[in-house]
Amino acid sequence: FFHFYAGICSALKLTVPSHTIHGIEGQPLHLTVDYNFNATASEIQIIWLFEKSQSNPKYLLGSVNQRVFPDLEYQHKFTLIPPNASLRINQLHISDEGNYVVKVNVRGNGTTAASQKIQVAVDVPVTKPTVHTEPSSGVVEHVGNITLKCTVDRGTRVSYQWMKNGKRLHAGPNYTFS
């Protein structure tokens, strides 16, 4: 019985990227989905949902065969061209970070369903850094300390690295980092 049941389940195979997909704020992002069904299908339904942690999943859009049914709130934000199940996010916003759930229902000899989750992270490009010097004159020969402060206005997952003559600086008797 188990083998027979597993055979029916495997009739619909849904493949999505297994790693987190990184997009850039303001750019479009394509979420690639492949599915195949090893029998004749009379109807194919595709549904896309979006979920953030601690909130209910939101319906984005869906299709039955060739007709697309968008949530009117998001109708200009997402594109789906059935029978392809891939989703295009037309312009990424930082609030689009989260999990996208695709569900495919196939009606043939009975109805078979499969769903998968795609994790999306939105990166904000790092702006040009500014460096402030204290004291502002920047000339401290043989006495005292000079402090260099580096900041960026925008950017996600920012890391800082100080270099001197093209070589990475490390903490030591002459340099401290905070």
TrEMBL record:
Gene3D superfamilies per record: Immunoglobulins (2.60.40.10)
Q: Which InterPro entries match?
A: HEPACAM_domain, Ig-like_dom, Ig-like_dom_sf, Ig-like_fold, Ig_V-set
Q: Name one GO cellular component term.
A: spindle
**UniProt lineage:** Eukaryota, Metazoa, Chordata, Craniata, Vertebrata
Origin: domain of life: Eukaryota
Organism of derivation:
Oreocharis arfaki
Tell me the compartments it is located in.
Cytoplasm; Endomembrane system
- Keyword set, alphabetical order: Cytoplasm, Disulfide bond, Glycoprotein, Immunoglobulin domain, Membrane, Signal, Transmembrane, Transmembrane helix
Q: Which residues form the Ig-like domain?
A: 129-178
| Entry membrane topology | Single-pass type I membrane protein
Query: Which protein are we looking at?
Result: HECA2 protein
What's any GO biological process attached to this entry?
Answer: centrosome cycle
